[in-house]
Amino acid sequence: MGLELYLDLLSQPCRSIYIFARSNNIPFEFKHVELFKDSVLGKRPAAGSGAEQPRAGPSNSQGTGKVNLLKKVPALKDGDFTLAECTAILLYLSRKYNTPDHWYPSDIQKRARVDEYLSWHHANIRANAPKTMWIKVLIPLFTGQPLPSEKLQEVMEGLSTSLKQFEERFLQDKAFIIGSEISLADLVAIVELMQPVGVGCDIFEDRPRLLEWRRRVEDAVGKELFFQAHEMILNIKELSNIQIDPQLKEQLAPVLMKMLK
Ligand SMILES: N[C@@H](CCC(=O)N[C@@H](CS)C(=O)NCC(=O)O)C(=O)O
């Protein structure tokens, strides 16, 4: 059995893996998991309740449960070997398929720059950028109510701080985070930063340095592939048609409403 990747291109880490695999010509079987429809979030047992329950839903969603006990995407299956966590999957693919050195350089200082970015990324860009989609699209879909604009403003302020640090600390006046070539750090960053764009918060608009970097990343992976991977999140109409499992809706709507009070 060949390499299988369990992905939903609505998810930013999934898009980084998809783009990485496709732009490096890594052969894989795309196992499509529909995050909200297949109720990936909803059917997980409460913490401490013991073994994972088998999940209802389409076959790929069952598959993800077997591949990744946390039932999250992205997930990888390579023969009997299974793996979760976006960074671990990207590194596994880069090593197994011996992808060009610039993705995760053998030079230890350049590699350390990638590691440094990835460590910072999770608590900053990753923690802030996707909130825009929750606020503008997902929470209203779950609760049936739009959110007050102050909520979005709050999120945008947090994101602005992260973007300022991204530009000043990591990008500086370089073409890419590690210098003149693209690395996993740029890929992991761009997929997150496209999330707000899809819901109408174009964070590149007033940030020319960031926009130039985005264009270089698009060119490095190939524009066609880049836009194909982002097709769904760049189409707001498709976003508002996301199918949400009714059970999941029932479960999460009151929690989300409470969180937002
Ligand atoms: N740390 C994991 C996060 C994976 C994750 O949270 N995936 C989300 C989609 S972006 C998911 O599957 N959510 C469903 C769930 O939490 O059950 C990674 O980077 O791969």
UniProtKB/TrEMBL annotation:
Its EC number is 2.5.1.18. Residues 107-248 form the GST C-terminal domain. Keywords: Cytoplasm, Transferase. GO terms for cellular component: cytoplasm. GO terms for molecular function: glutathione transferase activity. One of its GO terms (biological process) is glutathione metabolic process. Residues 1-101 form the GST N-terminal domain. Residues 46-65 are annotated as: Disordered. It catalyses: RX + glutathione = an S-substituted glutathione + a halide anion + H(+). It is an enzyme of class 2 (transferase). It holds the Pfam family GST_N. It is found in: Cytoplasm. Homodimer. PANTHER family: GLUTATHIONE S-TRANSFERASE THETA-1, PTHR43917. Belongs to the GST superfamily. Theta family. This is glutathione transferase. It comes from Pipra filicauda. The gene is LOC113984280.
